[in-house]
Amino acid sequence: MASSNKGEATIQAWYMNETDEDQRLPHHCDPPEYVSLDKLAELGVLYWHLDADNYETDEEFNKIRESRGYTYSDLITCCPDKLPNYECKLKSFYEEHIHTDEEIRFLLEGSGYFDVRDNNDRWIRIWVKKGDMIVLPAGIYHRFTMDSDNHTKALRLFVGEPVWTPYNRPQDDHPIRKQYVEAFIEKDQGSHAVEAH
Ligand SMILES: CSCCC(=O)C(=O)O
Ligand SMILES: [Fe+2]
């Protein structure tokens, strides 16, 4: 029973309408414009659905952790008495930024939205829920908000000693941003140029 949800769920992602209504609302376009896992993979975003209740002994989780070198982990709970400087943190999570390393989150409870910029600089909203593990590549412009359920508990993973520093946009000259653009944005333009011939 414990692992009955394993492998069944898939992530939902969509292009956002960029109205300035409440950030915790879904912000669907009209009609909704969904985004596939393949599209996310093209942007370097990785996703697994795992057993959140027994993750410590979950073989798939441990394999991912080992193969990707995720030696560090801690828990983050987004609620006023568990997250120091709650209001301030939530605000900074939603400022568009990059990191010099991957952002790796495994949702153990609740849900939330990771927004990432696509290759045309449009916002894609990724709805993560219990059991979803997501990796945002170093250098991708992104942000996070809770949804209207207002509850998120996640495992944060990292390779070695964690560095959580956000670099707010614009960071177009940052070496990590340049590396990301070269690997995931320009390669895309390259393949279209080839297709056109
Ligand atoms: C789902 S974890 C909360 C958000 C966060 O840790 C971050 O944006 O860095
Ligand atoms: Fe981040």
From TrEMBL:
Alphabetic keyword roster: Amino-acid biosynthesis, Cytoplasm, Dioxygenase, Iron, Metal-binding, Methionine biosynthesis, Nickel, Nucleus, Oxidoreductase
Pathway: Amino-acid biosynthesis; L-methionine biosynthesis via salvage pathway; L-methionine from S-methyl-5-thio-alpha-D-ribose 1-phosphate: step 5/6
GO terms of biological process kind: L-methionine salvage from methylthioadenosine; methionine metabolic process
One of the Pfam families matching this protein, by short name: ARD
Bilayer topology term: Peripheral membrane protein
Reaction(s) the record says it catalyses: 1,2-dihydroxy-5-(methylsulfanyl)pent-1-en-3-one + O2 = 4-methylsulfanyl-2-oxobutanoate + formate + 2 H(+); 1,2-dihydroxy-5-(methylsulfanyl)pent-1-en-3-one + O2 = 3-(methylsulfanyl)propanoate + CO + formate + 2 H(+)
Any one annotated GO CC term: cytoplasm
Molecular function GO labels: acireductone dioxygenase (Ni2+-requiring) activity; acireductone dioxygenase [iron(II)-requiring] activity; iron ion binding; nickel cation binding
Cofactor: Fe(2+); Ni(2+)
Broad EC category: oxidoreductase
Cofactor-binding details, from the entry: Binds either 1 Fe or Ni cation per monomer. Iron-binding promotes an acireductone dioxygenase reaction producing 2-keto-4-methylthiobutyrate, while nickel-binding promotes an acireductone dioxygenase reaction producing 3-(methylsulfanyl)propanoate.
Superkingdom as given in the UniProt entry: Eukaryota
Localisation: Cell membrane; Cytoplasm; Nucleus
Binding site for Fe(2+): 97, 99, 103, 142
Coiled-coil region: none
EC numbers, comma separated: 1.13.11.54, 1.13.11.53
Cited InterPro entries: ARD (IPR004313), ARD_euk (IPR027496), RmlC-like_jellyroll (IPR014710), RmlC_Cupin_sf (IPR011051)
Binding site for Ni(2+): 97, 99, 103, 142
Family: Belongs to the acireductone dioxygenase (ARD) family.
Task performed by this protein: Catalyzes 2 different reactions between oxygen and the acireductone 1,2-dihydroxy-3-keto-5-methylthiopentene (DHK-MTPene) depending upon the metal bound in the active site. Fe-containing acireductone dioxygenase (Fe-ARD) produces formate and 2-keto-4-methylthiobutyrate (KMTB), the alpha-ketoacid precursor of methionine in the methionine recycle pathway. Ni-containing acireductone dioxygenase (Ni-ARD) produces methylthiopropionate, carbon monoxide and formate, and does not lie on the methionine recycle pathway.
Name of the protein: Acireductone dioxygenase
Gene source species: Amborella trichopoda
Origin organism lineage: Eukaryota, Viridiplantae, Streptophyta, Embryophyta, Tracheophyta
